[in-house]
Description:
Layout: H1 3-25, H2 40-46, E1 50-57, H3 70-75, E2 85-95, E3 100-103, H4 105-108, E4 111-117, E5 123-132, E6 137-141, E7 163-168, E8 176-187, E9 198-201, E10 213-215, E11 221-228, E12 239-243, H5 244-257, E13 267-271, H6 274-280, E14 288-293, H7 298-302, E15 309-313, E16 316-317, H8 321-329, E17 336-343, E18 346-353, E19 366-367, E20 374-381, E21 384-393, H9 398-401, E22 409-413, E23 416-417, H10 421-428, E24 434-440, E25 443-450
Antiparallel strand pairs: 1-2, 1-4, 2-3, 3-6, 4-5, 5-6, 7-8, 7-10, 8-9, 9-12, 10-11, 11-12, 13-14, 14-15, 15-16, 15-17, 17-18, 19-20, 20-21, 21-22, 22-23, 22-24, 24-25
Amino acid sequence: MNGALIRLVLLTFVGLSLYSAELAAGALPPSGPGEMPTLARLVEQVTPAVVNIAVLSHSPEQDNPMLQDPFFRRFFGLPEASRPQISAGSGVIIDAQQGYVLTNHHVVKDAQQVVVTLKDGRRLQAKLLGSDVGTDVALLKVEPDNLKALTFGDSDVLRVGDYVLAIGNPFGLGQTVTSGIVSALGRTGLDIEGYEDFIQTDASINPGNSGGALINLKGELIGINTAIVGPSGGNVGIGFAVPSNMVRAVMQQLVKYGEMRRGRVGLTTQDIAPELGKTLGPQASHGAEVVEVAKNSPADKAGLRPADVIVAVNARPVRGSSDLRNQIGLIPVGEEVELKVLREGQVRTIKMRVESLGVTEATAGESVAELAGATVGNAERNGRAEAVAVIDVVRGSPAWSRGLRPGDLIVAVNRQKVRTTRDLSAALQAQGGLILTVVRGDYVFAVVLRR
């Protein structure tokens, strides 16, 4: 076969592939000589549901009580009033009747005012219904006036190689559409947020795309764009999105409660070691091995033991330890969970109920200036302070917007252990960046107070 014929065959194959993809998407196939396949019809259908988000937030110095003192500001020659900060991101209308708009937590945190701009140019004031720092998902509400919404797709059926489109507002330029494929699934270990199960894509995602839509060729929402890995945050062909099934579970709780009400089950797990997997057989090709079971915890009451291998939660396979944590973390407090467990070569079904976090043996609450809106106390065990417990948080306060919730345990500031409220107060007065290490239920995450 000569070179010209080979090129003709390859071009024909590529053309047929594109044509098939267009038909699957409802896009416009070529209708005459010289016309090319296009995704324009699909884009025209979905882009009205993707919005630009402008956020007015207070500057970091507004949270510093010293910098709010007029005498202090005059003494150091600071301006009388700090200027608010303006940032931009993206969002997705997911319910046209209710006016619900999904975006990222990091896009709208600390927001004083949020304005949503539709594709047709309308600007709508948005109300923050709730957000979740653990998954980086937030829910806004706008006036439901002639809106266009996307429908959720099933992110569990995605395969590496599936075509996707990313739609958002990069660099504040305005709505932009980029294309690519699913590069990988179930990405973890990025230390971006508390719960990681990212879709990786090579569709260009740049600053400002955060909160935008990742869609399949059916026009369904299969992810919320959230993170970029690259020099200075620029696109280098590696972008990440929160899977739609995770987003939908978070949204349901944000609609109902205004927050994620996670509980605890009292398990410490790890990925299955290859040697253990061989001895357990093909049923243990995936799963999470139980390392420790907390006494009197839901897991303990249900009869789980160290060395058990959890392979499914509510009939959904468990890929590994982080996947188990993700799945448990999306289950509301009080709901029963059915686990499929391998123990000594036998498959068992174990049911347990997720319990609320609670705070036990906490001393009387007090306020800390740097955590405005939060009441904290010493969390004690056997009469000894072990951490700082968050007893209460005023909804909408700076502490609330940064993600602190009642029941959290603050165990470190800038990686330095704190055991008492006095330790915490002293550490928070340090200069430079401030990062809290917080334990909530069965997972640990970071809360950035100041960079």
